Write a sequence for this structure.
């Protein structure tokens, strides 16, 4: 069965610090990978996605993620965080061929950015 | 940009009662989903719906739950005889056809069972 693991439950950073949130998945086949963000009181929003091609994908708000197939990882990065990045971040996986698009989510990482 | 809308934003109900959570997916989307997130836990898949029938459901989605698309726009989740452990945030999502299209989520309905 597919599963997604996010290493950090809660990350606290100061503004301008660099961010890296870990995500590993378990699935032997080809996958689509996603990072979603949930700002306080708001719905899940897509930050970025990887389907194929360049393993380094860029998303909105200066976020990027790198797919490393050999490590089954899809870590999220941002060189310099802002207070407005305070949110919960979810990594998600969809097994390719699943046209229904069911996502398996990680447990989420809460990011708190201190001004 | 079109959005998935969910109503109500917060529903409080007594144990044993039935609730219906409502969702209006994006109009040209064909796949519909319900997910839930119990406080402090993962977002969990409940059910997917395509072509007017359930295409996949999780083990959480037992006989207590049902989904319906009663007209061309609404997509509902009914929970019969609610239990305390049904308290969670319930998210509706939809997507266009094609494996490369992402899910779009609604704001969620917070269900509190007392």
């Amino acid at each position: 069965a597919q599963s997604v693991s996010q290493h950090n439950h809660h990350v606290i950073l100061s503004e301008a610090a660099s961010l890296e949130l870990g995500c590993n998945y378990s699935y032997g086949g080809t996958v689509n990978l996603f990072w979603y963000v949930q700002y306080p009181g708001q719905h899940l929003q897509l930050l970025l996605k990887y389907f194929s091609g360049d393993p380094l994908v860029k998303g909105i708000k200066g976020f990027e993620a790198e797919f490393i197939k050999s490590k089954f990882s899809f870590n999220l990065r941002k060189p310099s965080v802002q207070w407005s990045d305070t949110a919960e971040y979810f990594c998600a996986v969809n097994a390719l061929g699943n046209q229904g698009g069911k996502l398996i989510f990680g447990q989420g990482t809460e990011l708190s950015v201190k001004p | 940009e079109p959005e998935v809308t969910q109503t109500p934003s917060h529903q409080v109900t007594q144990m044993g009662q039935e609730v219906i959570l409502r969702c209006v997916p994006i109009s040209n989307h064909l796949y519909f989903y319900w997910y839930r997130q119990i406080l402090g836990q993962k977002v969990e898949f409940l059910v997917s719906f395509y072509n007017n029938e359930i295409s996949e459901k999780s083990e959480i989605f037992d006989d207590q739950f049902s989904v319906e698309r009663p007209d061309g726009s609404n997509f509902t989740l009914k929970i019969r005889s609610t239990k305390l452990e049904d308290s969670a945030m319930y998210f509706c999502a939809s997507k266009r056809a094609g494996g490369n299209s992402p899910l779009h989520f609604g704001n969620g309905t917070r269900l509190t069972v007392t």
User: Anything to note?
Assistant: Chain A has a mean pLDDT of 90. The interface with chain B takes residues 32, 34, 36, 42-46, 49, 51, 90, 92, 94, 96-108 of chain A (CB under 8 Å). The radius of gyration of chain A is 14 Å. The first strand of chain A starts at residue 3 and ends at 6.
